[in-house]
Amino acid sequence: MTGTTTTTTTTTTTTLPGGAATGTPRAGGGGVNARGLRVGLRRGWTEYLHLVRDRRELINNMVGTVGVFALLILWIGDGPVEGTGVSQSTFMTIGFLAFTVFSNGLMALPMALTTDREDGTLLRLRTLPGGITAYLTGRAVTFLCQIVVQGVLILATGVVVGDAGLPRDWLTLTWALLLGTVAVVPLGVAIGCLLPNPKTAAGAVGLPMMILMVTSGVMIPVTFMPEPVQWVSQAFPLYWQGLGLRAAFMPDSMLAAEIAGSWRLPWVAVALGAWAVAGMLLAPVMVRRVTRRESGSRLADRRPAAQAS
Amino acid sequence: MSTAVSVRGLRMAYGTAEVLRGVDLDIRRGEIFTLLGPNGAGKTTTIEILEGFRNRSAGEVSVLGADPARGGDAWRARLGIVLQNWRDHGRWGVRELLAHVGEFYDRPRDPDELLAALGLTEQAAQRVNRLSGGQRRRLDVGLGIMGRPELLFLDEPTTGFDPEARREFHLLVERLAADGMTVLLTTHDLAEAEKLAHRTAILVRGEIVACGSPAELADAVRAESQVRWLEDGRERVLTTADPSRAAWELHERFGGPVPGLQVRRPSLEENYLSLIGRAA
After folding, report:
1. Do A1 and B135 touch (CB under 8 A)?
2. A138 in contact with B at a CB cutoff of 8 Å?
3. pLDDT, tens only, B241-252
4. Which residue of A has its CA nearest to B39?
5. B10 near B22, Cβ under 8 Å?
6. pLDDT, mean of residues A81-102
7. DSSP assigned state of B223
8. CATH match for B3-220 among 3.60.10.10, 3.30.460.10, 3.40.50.300, 3.40.50.970
9. pLDDT tens profile B94-127
10. Does the model's ipTM exceed the 0.95 cut?
11. Domain residue ranges of chain B, discontinuous segments joined by +
12. Which residue in B has a C-alpha nearest to residue A36's C-alpha?
């Protein structure tokens, strides 16, 4: 404080730039919301750059995703799956792509949300016109950037280390990955709103997430599951994203392992699109509800705990 | 419109615990208004209801002509809010964050001019979580006024400040008010309210016990004075609301100088403390 004393005292005679507002009417709700979206896009990109610049985060990411995946491929090998012309590593590349989206969406995203709730980021955004829209847009953009970069790394690792096949249909890969990512954001936000604090995220979400991974056909063909389980799996975006990704990589000879013997791409788009739209409508409401329970005094109460961690 | 904030019969209960018990307030445009009270009096609850962050249990509230519980983005754009204990956006750069917040408004301030006015020019490129407590607080105020609000809320802004930092902060608030901004500030420090505020309301246990300018407040909360003198070799003490009259009557009775006469008026601080004690 003392270091800046002189600076501040010398400026006391100057008036603040611009003066106060005179009460001119501002843009209506619609205008502000469009602005919230626009500001959110930039916000998400800025936050992504912050993540990239954070060396520890970057190394964790590289080792956690690419390293683990490379080891897994080297361990299991790259022989073809029995009775098909498709290699093990192609299967694993698809599974790991879907897993990355899902684990980021259901673990990293809720944890980021609870952290933002605890340190006052959400509350700050709530003080700004269109702030919640900007916040959610920003989180989605950061998340997308992470998925795109990790997806490229996984694909490259699969191809280089495991000799996995390149996707046959890049367009389907792109939209299934992007739409799948956007579709998982609302689930992540919902979990983030429900969790009491960041530390409980892993415990609360880990097991259900693994169960969903196993039943959703990204590890084991979904047709191996009993029919009721298939129905439950189809209610979640993970199944549909996995289906879209398999459609992008696999030859049609693999269709025997799919429900109805079809890639059902229109349904993939409908299911993922429905999750994305529902999320965009519900997520702002949930975030507003959860920030209503936050306040400056509660931030103060939590301060010692947060600093100790 | 000469009233920025109007509150009538504001009540807030959490379960059976009543935090606010019928608060009335009127804050005029362009004034610095402090809400003074001990910890736990309900100051933060009041300010958070006015900010639209909490739903009240009962009462009428109007902030810049709108009900905070239903205020939209256009209304929010006219407010500046500085809460307690913000630790957010630690990874962001100081100037980067100011510019980002400015993007939400139609006519934001210039971030560089604002940094200079806040004395944070040297910290412009620094990460927010590397700022000292006082710098962080000034940045918080900067973020609060980035959109040229008509009404600025400051919740316990100087808690933990050393006297120098506090003085600088007061100068900053006075400059903001000189520019026509209405400022509502909470504090538990009587000296701060006395120095800074045009008007102060004292909130104790969820009720306003006094409200007015420093002089009006002193009158309203004046505890009784003590008049002491010597009579028959013993010290006599009289406690009275009108020590001047008591002294005059003593002079009349003695027919001249009163031996050992002392009149002791309580300080504003003593008044305030007795007021808190009385209500508690």
Report:
1. yes
2. no
3. 888 899 999 999
4. A297
5. yes
6. 80
7. P
8. 3.40.50.300
9. 999 999 999 999 999 999 999 998 889 999 999 9
10. no
11. 3-220, 223-264
12. B104
